[in-house]
Write a structure and sequence with these properties.
heterotrimer; A mainly alpha; B alpha/beta; C alpha/beta; A: mainly alpha; 8 helices; about 80% helix; B: alpha/beta; five-stranded antiparallel sheet; 11 strands; about 35% helix; about 25% strand
């Protein structure tokens, strides 16, 4: 127990890196995902094709590889960004691709009758999107989105690869130093606490917006 | 002057010729029933009036204002988007599947369009919604969500929602087809009340009894054409055309 | 010592292929016919007043995080500070991952690698080394109850080793022993290999002396180190191949620190004996 207390300061510091990366990515990615989904659904061919390519590239390669490319690759091309910004950029690019696909599927799942009802009432296209379609999409995509949000927490562990001291890396550092398994246990508890909060939040949100059979 | 005029409407889906030149003139206060077998084009015809379907050629005029007419090439040419949105508001539409907004409660469903489209204030929209929900007999369901209502109740909310825009013409696209038989009565009663108020209405329906009771005029459509048209009792009781007769006997037998 | 050269090379290659054209910027040590660019490496460091030292901060006792304070400490840290003082500059420590040290170095995120880095011929092609500062053995660690007495007893046994480490090369060099052993199991890191030794799933672990002694110190009852070993190696500091001026200055300072006894002091502080070279 005493040992766990000794671990706390560095574990909390690692957790703060993890959480910063998590929240920043989430705040940028969710709205971006909606925009990209709409871009993907546009009838404007070049944009549509570009989006398909984008989703293919960022969903079709490991996030770890994308981290390397953003941090080292852009560095080689002369665009040097610090580790944290590189991590955020890579995570945003990757997760936006996933969210774009989730939102696209969500938008396409909305019944044509909803558009028609909005149409005959005289709503504009923007009103139809913002007042009728998207609110329903958000409700429908909550389960897959909560999945991805939980994945995001766990994926933050990958940034160790560009030398950032996030939670798991800190645990590993301590485990190697003290030759003990306890830091990993503590890290597991930390991750469970974070994912637990997210899980409860989405459960609450789903219950609150339960306007479907 | 006609409140609605549709002349020689043609419409195809890919190769399928669904409307082969149909016309309709509606006078203010008239109640029109369109009947016919499924696939006859009757729903498509109705949906053309507020451009849920775009026509290939023909003319549609609402209260003397042109929505679409043939261009020099003989193909339908629509007015600007804003004009059409304005014309659409004169037409109330009730769908077979209700199409209520599931994320809004009953009051919000009815208030939405007046507030967004007509710029009504909350007070005004609320007042209007209360009156209309009383009228369709759902005063006690204001705060409920659509999923908590029966099909008949949902359809009555949909009627209230359409009425909230004060339309000049109410269009009903098979309003009771998706309902259990014991729930059709409550919806038909509401539509009947509207007929008594002398609202202009076009109803696509399978309810022959209802058509006879409520409609001033009945159109029988088959294979994209209007086969027979006339006063309700003439068409429904003494059809002149054998296709009408055949249709009526199958429908009545099925009941 | 840790190296994972193969992974590094694959990464270099893939980066080169994907970022088209950057392949040209890869240093080519054998080709000196290009117009000589003036080497400002030392001037640059003197000007900014520090050099950035890349290290794996999970590598006790060379460089790791102090329990409680989280500061980076270790033998290499003390030595680097002493050398920097001699040079009149400061050190900034940057934790990096071994898989990507070459990218970190060539991407100029760090100025050098100083982290118990074994000097090998393969690595000499990718980076410039200072003279060695430590001589290190590849030890054989066993369970106290084990009857393994020397290398010949390893015949048919399962040996744990860190993946991509110079310990593997050392074992492979000893062809006779290498042929005789049962299986070579590679682990992500030394501590994992040693942990598996306590469970008995491996019979022995081959590891650097500095690392082996550190863990033996942690759990004296769990491990035994036998006298026989897989030869000696040397640690050096790795720099970019083209930073010749910086290398020369560093070399000079390292020599001075060794000569005035500071290096021995640091060695005694961390290892109890002077293993500097």
């Amino acid at each position: 127990m005493e040992y766990v207390l000794i671990l706390m300061p560095s574990m909390l510091k690692g957790t703060s890196v993890t959480l910063q990366l998590f929240f920043l990515t989430l705040i940028i990615t969710l709205p971006l995902g909606v925009i990209l989904a709409l871009a993907r659904l546009t009838k404007f061919k070049p944009l549509n094709l570009f989006m398909q390519l984008y989703v293919w590239v960022f969903r079709g390669t490991p996030l770890l590889l994308q981290l390397f490319f953003v941090y080292f690759g852009l560095g080689i091309l002369g665009l040097k960004i610090d580790r944290f910004s590189a991590a955020v950029l890579a995570f945003v690019l990757n997760y936006a691709a996933y969210y774009a696909e989730i939102f696209r599927a969500g938008i396409q799942s909305i019944d044509r009758g909803q558009y028609e009802a909005a149409d005959v009432l005289g709503l504009t296209r923007v009103q139809t999107m913002t007042k009728i379609v998207l609110p329903q999409v958000f409700r429908r995509v909550l389960p897959p989105v909560s999945n991805e949000v939980i994945n995001l927490i766990k994926d933050t562990a990958l940034v160790y690869a560009i030398g950032m001291s996030e939670l798991l890396r800190v645990a590993k550092t301590a485990a190697v130093r003290d030759f003990s398994f306890i830091p990993f246990l503590v890290a597991a508890v930390f991750y469970l606490a974070m994912t637990g909060v997210v899980q409860q939040f989405f459960k609450w949100l789903e219950a609150k917006t339960n306007f479907y059979r | 002057m006609y409140i609605l005029q549709a002349n020689d409407i043609h419409k195809s889906f890919h190769r399928l010729h669904v409307l082969k030149g149909v016309s309709l003139q509606v006078k203010t206060g008239e109640v029109i029933a369109i009947i016919g077998p499924s696939g006859s084009g009757k729903s498509t015809f109705l949906r053309c009036f507020n451009r849920l379907e775009t026509i290939d050629s023909g003319l549609i005029e609402i209260q003397g204002e042109l929505m679409v007419e043939n261009g020099p090439d003989g193909k339908a040419k629509y007015k600007a988007e804003a004009d059409i949105r304005r014309l659409r508001r004169k037409m109330g539409m009730v769908f077979q599947n209700f199409n209520l907004f599931p994320h809004k409660n009953v009051m919000q469903n009815v208030m939405l369009a007046p507030m967004l489209v007509e710029d009504n204030g909350v007070k005004e929209a609320e007042e209007k919604a209360r009156v209309l929900l009383d009228k369709v007999g759902l005063a006690d369901k204001r705060e409920n969500f659509p999923f908590e209502l029966s099909g008949g109740q949902q359809q009555r909310v949909a009627i209230a929602r359409a009425l909230a825009m004060d339309p000049d013409i109410m269009c009903f696209d098979e309003p009771t087809s998706a309902l259990d038989p014991e729930l059709t009565g409550e919806v038909l009663r509401v539509i009947k009340d509207l007929a008594i108020e002398r609202r202009t209405m076009i109803v696509v329906t399978h309810e022959i009894g209802f058509a006879r009771e409520v409609a001033d005029r009945v159109l029988f459509m088959d294979e994209g054409l209007i086969v027979e048209e006339g006063k309700a009792e003439e068409v429904l009781i003494n059809p002149r055309h054998e296709r009408t007769e055949a249709f009526l006997s199958t429908v009545l037998m099925a009941r | 010592m840790k190296k994972k050269i193969a992974i590094m090379l694959v990464l270099c290659l893939s980066l080169g292929v994907f970022m088209m054209g950057c392949g040209n910027s890869e240093p080519e040590p054998n080709d000196v016919k290009e117009p000589v660019v003036e080497d400002t490496s030392w001037l640059d460091i003197k000007e900014k007043g520090y050099f950035v030292m890349g290290l794996d901060d999970a590598f006790p006792p060379m460089g790791y995080r102090e329990q409680g304070t989280d500061d980076i400490i270790g033998f290499d840290i003390d030595l680097a500070n002493a050398v920097a003082k001699e040079m009149g500059v400061e050190v900034k420590f940057q934790p990096v991952i071994w898989d990507t040290i070459i990218e970190e170095l060539n991407g100029k995120n760090i100025d050098l690698i100083w982290n118990g880095l074994t000097i090998t011929d393969v690595r000499k092609k990718a980076m410039a080394f200072t003279d060695p500062y430590i001589e290190d053995k590849q030890l054989i660690v066993i369970q106290p109850s084990s009857d393994i007495a020397d290398k010949t007893d390893l015949a048919g046994k399962i040996i744990g080793i860190q993946a991509g480490s110079s310990a593997i090369e050392a074992v492979e060099r000893d062809a006779k022993t290498y042929e005789s052993i049962g299986e070579l199991v590679e682990f992500g890191s030394n501590d994992e290999a040693l942990l598996d030794l306590t469970t008995g799933r491996v019979d022995a672990v081959v590891v650097d002396e500095v690392v082996g002694r550190y863990y033996k110190g942690k759990k004296p009852d769990d491990y035994k180190i036998i006298a026989d070993h897989f030869g000696t190696e040397e640690f050096g500091v790795g720099l970019r191949l083209e930073d010749k001026a910086f290398l020369a200055e560093l070399q000079k300072a390292l020599k001075a620190v060794k000569a005035d006894g500071t290096a021995s002091e640091i060695s005694i502080k961390w290892f109890g004996v002077d293993i500097t070279k």
